[in-house]
Structure formats: C-alpha cells, structure tokens
Amino acid sequence: VKKVFALFLGVLTAIGGFVDIGDLVANAAVGARFQMNLAWVVVVGVIGIIVYAEMSGRVAAISGRAIFDLVRERLGPRFGLANLLASFFINLLTLTAELAGVAIAISLASGVNYLLLIPVALFLVWVVIWRMPFERMEDVFGLAGLALIVFAVTAWHIGPAWGDVLHDASHPQIPPTENAFTYAYYAIALFGAAMTPYEVFFFSSGAVEEHWTRGDLATNRANVIVGFPLGGALSLSIMVVAALVFAPNDIDVGQLSQVVLPVSAELGKVGLAFAILGIFAATFGAALETALSSGYTIAQYFGWQWGKYVRPREASRFHLVVLIAIVASALWGMSAVDPVKVTEYSIVLSAAALPLTYFPILVIANDAEYMGEDTNGRVLNFVATLYLVLLVAVALATIPLMILTKAGQ
Amino acid sequence: MSGRELFAALHLLDRQLVDRDGRLCGNVDDLELTESVEGNVYVTAILSGPGALWYRLGRKRLGRWLRTHTAMAMPPEHGDDPVRIPMRRVTGIGSAVTLAAHRYELANNAAEIWVRDHIIGHIPGSRHSADE
Fold it and tell me: Would you list which residues of chain B are within 8 Å, Cβ to Cβ, of chain A?
C-alpha cells in the first residue's frame, strides 16, 4: 500500500494538470466540435509530459534543485526573469480559473451562486497549503480525483461501437464544419494543456519537498508512467462522452456545468455525485499546484527558502507570495470574469512559453556535473529533442493562430 | 591558474546558496573580482541580494541604492558590507554553493526576516511545519 501511495505525487500532478477546469472544458468542447479527430494530440502531449516530467524529477532527486532554480542558472538572470514574469502571470490566470472551478463544483452540489463561494475556495486552498502535510495533500486530492473515472463509466454505459470510436480517433480528419486554422488552434490548446509548465514546477518541487534522492529514481519513473497516462485517459474519456452526447446534437460546450450533464443523464444522481467530487478534487488539486507554483517559481529564481517541508516562518517570503497569489486570483475571479475564457487563454499562452521552461530541463539532464551517471540516454535525448523542436514550432504558431481564429471561434 | 577563474565564474553565477543548516539563503547574484599584484584575477566574494542582481542586470543606480539600504538594515556586527559574502565562507561548490554561515546573518535575508516578523509570524500555526 505504501508503494501505491508513493505514486500519488504523479497522480495529483497529472489530475491537477490534465483534468483541471481548463481541460475539463477544453476536452468536452473539443469532443463536441471535433469528435475524436483531435484525440491523438492528447497522446502526443502525454508522451511529452512523461519525458520531461521524468527528467525534472530525476534532476530534483539527484541534485536537490527544482526547475526554476535551473531555469535561472541556465538561461541567466535576464531570460530567467522574462520566463518568471510570463510563468507567474500564466499561473495567476490558471489559479483564478481553478478557484472559480472549485467554487462551481461546490455550487453544483449546493445550489449557491458560485461567485459567493469563491472566498470559501480561497480559504480552503490557503488552509491546505498552510497546514496540510505535502504527502497527505497528494493522497487526499489524488485519490478523490480518481472519482473522474465516472466519465469512463458513462462512456461505457452509453455503449458506442468502440471499433468506430477507435477508428475515428486513429484516422483524424478536419470535420467539414471546421477549417485548418481552428483545428490547429484546438490542437495547440490540447497540447498546451497537457504540457502546462506548472506541472513540472510542481512535480520537481514536490520531489524536493518529499526529499527524494537517487534511491527514489524508480519511484520517479513509476510516478510519471502511471500518473500522466491516467490523467490522459481521464481527459480522453471526457472527450469521448462529449463526442457521443454533444456532437450529434450540435451542442457547444462553454461552461463547466455542461460537462457533467451526460453523466447525470446516464448514471443518475450517484454518477453526478462522483462527477462533482472528481471535478472538485481536480480543480482543487490544480489550485494547489498553481498557488504553490507561484511561490516555487519566484522563490527559486531569487534563491529564497521555499516549501512546505519547513515551518512557514522559515519560508516567510514564499508563503507571502502564495497568499498574495491566492487572494489576487480570488478577487479577480469574483469580478465575474468568465473562468472558461481565462483558462483557455492561460493554456494557449503557456503553449507560447513552453520552450523557455523545457529547454533548461533538457540541458541539465545531460549535465554530468549535476547528474553524475544518471544523465539522459541516447533514445531519451532523441525523443526529448524531437519534442523540443515541436515545442518551439508550437510556441511560434500559437499567437498568430490565436489572432487568425479569433481564439478558436 | 587562468582556467580556474573561468571555471569558478561559470560554476558560481546564478547558483543557489545553502547555509550551514541546509536552508536555502539566496542566489549568487554577482561576483566580486580582485586583481592580484601578479595580474591574476580572483573571485574574492559572492554578492547576493536584490541590489547585486539589479546591478548585474544593468540597473546600476537602483542596484547600488538597494545594496546600501539592505546593508543598513543589518546590525553593525555583521561588518560594513554584509551583502558581500567572502569566498572563505564558502564550504562547497556543487549544484548549490554551501556557506559556513547562518542565513539570518546574510543581508540578502533582511526582507525574509522582516516578512517573518511582521506578517507570516502573526498567522496562527506559522511555528509548526505542516509535517509535524
């Protein structure tokens, strides 16, 4: 059992990263508009995040250094600062959306307007960061997030011809109602969602929080190999459900509350309860990841003490940054900004910033002075380099596509 | 000896500083170089803190101002320029630079102490690690 729980850093990272509010809506929206024609992007994204999260966890275990520390060390203070500002801003966008997502999940269960519940979400997230031990936090929210398996059950309950679904997914084409630009735009959104930088900020810092050493390299590998495909499978099951239920009826998905409709229609109240629990845990997990990441990135850039493994008064600036980030995001969320729009932008903007974070990871993972004998192998370097080329191409294409498609409309 | 100086600069700048208790205590924001009589250049001190960082980023006036003001925030027993960490206090250079010093003696932690004493320290539970 202990070994199973040792995998929850990966599970929480993946659930928070893959099925946070942005992905819940993006996957449902993509399923409704493109059926399974973009499913391959999720697979490409899962492989990419496995490759880079494994490296970031390995670097953290061997050298004790988390990602943003290395970003500054390799990119220098100037590019490091540019990356810091971009990452911090994207983190705030995501945190805003996740806090709204937590509030919406509570509101689905209670009927209270979600705007009134954002302060509740703020307080809960902050208290968990302030008091809950890191590993318990992983276990609780990773485990509760597994309730999202209810989407796979829903798909199975609808009982489509699985051969056809698989055939559609493996023979992608641009649907006649869409054009190449919107197709590419949503492909980037899904890819950006799979590889959001806060996943590696959180994962590598989590490895330091849990005091991983060289002896934990197997745990690191198991974490990424179990966690991220699980997150990918959950997001694909949401896409399948949307493709089956929304696409034939020409329903567009623009709200989190729509995502759960097929579940309650198929499985009734119990199914709905599981879906709401899963969404609560996933958005809460993502809120924790992004709130902590805002502290991790700033503290690591400047060299401040950070982390939940020391007393808060020993990492005072770190906790202050986290607190300010949560409060600012909550205030912004309460101004009734559309949380779905906010995440869509955060995902797409993070796609534009990806190479700045992933390039230093690849360089350090090959540096024998940091890594000793645990540098990358040839095959891994080949795959990682391919992905770096892909990341740069995606980053360059993002903003033009965003303008061309008016953000996917 | 010329190879060694290059080595030091490449492997020192922008590294994490770790104090004698293993706590993180700043970053190598800049280095102080001194030329000896024979003409060799030596790294004589690590400069750490916002002043040193801004100075290196080209905002020299802001950097100098920050540096004198963080120095003034420190008690006088820490010397006239506590932003400066002499190389003799460095005990190891690896993926981080370890120091034979306590983090709270370093001027780059003045803000850390201020935030601790005025904000974070007042929130209930700040004295206990979440893991305890």
Answer: 11, 14-17, 23-27, 29, 48, 50, 53, 56-57, 94-96, 103, 108, 111-113, 115-116, 119-121, 123, 125-131
**What gap in Å lies between CA A36 and CA A365, rounded to an integer?**
35
Tokens 């190999």 label which residue? A225
Cα separation of A82 and A75, whole Å? 10
Tell me the C-alpha distance between A161 and A158, whole Å: 10
Give A66-87 pLDDT, tens digit per residue: 999 999 988 889 999 999 999 9
Q: Which amino acid is at B37?
A: V
pTM above 0.90, yes or no: yes
Give the tokens for residue A207: 């490895």
Is there a contact between B73 and B57 (Cβ–Cβ < 8 Å)? no
Which residue(s) pair with B45 in the sheet?
B32, B86
The predicted complex's ipTM stands at 0.90
Put simply, the answer to whether A320 touches B120 (Cβ < 8 Å) is: yes
What's the CA gap between A324 and B77, in Å, rounded? 34
What is the DSSP-derived secondary structure letter of residue B106? Answer: S
Burial class (CB in 10 A: 0-12, 13-18, 19+), A45: buried
pLDDT tens for A226-257 read 899 999 999 999 999 999 998 888 888 878 88
Q: What is the dihedral of CA A17, A97, A202, A297, to 10 degrees?
A: 140
For A5-22, the DSSP string reads: HTTHHHHHHHHHHHSSHH
